[in-house]
Amino acid sequence: MRRFAVGVQSNVRTFLRTPLNAILAIVLPLVVIEGWGQAMAGLPSMPTVEAIPIDLGRLLGGIFGVAIIAGLMGLVQMIDARDADQRLVRTGYPPHVLLATRLATLATVTVVVAAVNYAVLRLTIEPDASVAAFAFLALAGLVYAFIGALVGAVMPRLFEGSLVVVFLAMMDAFLSGDSPLAADVPDFVQYFPLYHPKQLLQSAVFEGTFATGDLLFVGGYILVLLAAVTAIFGWTMRTAGGWSA
Amino acid sequence: MEATIQQTDVATDNETLVRAEGVEKTYSSVLPFTRSVPVLSGADLEIRRGEIVGIVGANGAGKSTLMNVLVGVLDHDGGTVERSGTVGWCPQETLLYDRLTVSETFRLFGSGYGMSPEEIKDAKRRLAEELDFEQYLDYRIDQLSGGNRQKVNLGVALMHDPDVLMLDEPYTGFDWETYLQFWDLAKDLAADGTAVVMISHLIEERSRLDRIYEVRDGNVYDVTEEGAEKEQSREGAPDA
């Protein structure tokens, strides 16, 4: 337990001592939410969607903003200190505890990022179910935080990993959204990471309800990602014999 | 040949703390059009309690590879490595968390070693004094000079009083005073029974080493006597 506490403290300090993180977390939501809103403002309303395009755009901007920041932070958390992590694990620090400290920090930061995005969203949209809307935004962030962590564990290169996360999030938010530009998308889009979080968020914001099936799907998605990250991180941190302490 | 590693928690054998037999290592990749690089092809060595051992060899001979295999941070393809007791490892690159302070670094790695907060505090105080970085305890690692970073790197390897200390060119960036302090520390550790193993390039250091292994052509040769002869002939040679 002491190792976990020391690890989380170290991660939080490292995060807070990287000013770019805080700047990104505050500035990006403003730009992305209003940017997506204005980009979709000129589009015609869709017969199957009640929301007006500008609000739908802001909503998609909000979910994209959370996803992209959480995804990149997940990526950086896994890559930034990989070599030092390997040394730490050799001292006897259990890899699963180290991963738990990383994911706990990531989850906390994601909730904060979701809160900032939600606050910006609230400036222009009044959600019908406020708490649920915030929770689903945070869930979308968690999905991408763990995707970022997975990409970082598989591909420990910042540039290539960032490209993967950014393009995936952009394509995901675009194809998963109800937009005339993304009409007639294939069925497999429903397996995209943001598809169900977006359905949940949209229902909570515009109708005040949500479908349990969507929620279960997102929960399953997160569990599968957690299992994959745990397996790959454990493999990369495996010790050749270990040291006794 | 199968690769095996054995680790025992307590140094049961009073003499030998690390024994490597027939260690083989080839760097290869699953990607096509990449070259396999054989580095070790049957390396044998023994490290005994209280010895200061030097590992020498030309650039690219495989010194760091050998040390990484001995430490256990690198898998080997064949042969056996047996270690007894605790290990401290000071890698050539300072593998530390850049945005943590020196004190926080000791706290984190100390928790990894399983030390209590009091033990960590004591070790930090002792090593900061011995290696002369007391004034930098509240500095972040990325704000330290190369030499001071290396002192912390060494301190992290030493903080749990290991039975075997593995050092990959540990004095890179040290000033002369610190270099001499380092050797005093190494001698004290060896006198207390710690085996100190270090990769060295400096011919002047041969006289400070109890045993010298040279990595050459994938094998490891005990060249302690050879080193002593060279030392004698250098001392006996007329000044130019």
Q: What's the Cα radius of gyration of chain B?
A: 19 Å
Named CATH architecture of the largest domain in chain B = 3-Layer(aba) Sandwich
Q: What is the CATH T-level topology of the largest domain in chain B?
A: Rossmann fold
Q: Describe the biggest sheet of chain A?
A: none
Distance between the termini of chain B: 51 Å
The number of domains of chain A = 1
Helix share, percent of chain A: over 70%
What is the global morphology of chain B? globular
What ranges of chain B have pLDDT less than 50 throughout 5 or more consecutive residues? none
Strand content of chain B: 25-35%
Quickly give the structural class of chain B: alpha/beta
Largest interface, C-beta closer than 8 angstroms, per-chain residues: A-B, 28 and 37 residues
Relevant terms:
heterodimer, A: 245 residues, mainly alpha, elongated, disordered C terminus, B: 240 residues, alpha/beta, Rossmann fold, 2 domains, six-stranded mixed β-sheet, four-stranded mixed β-sheet, 6 helices, 10 strands, 32% helix
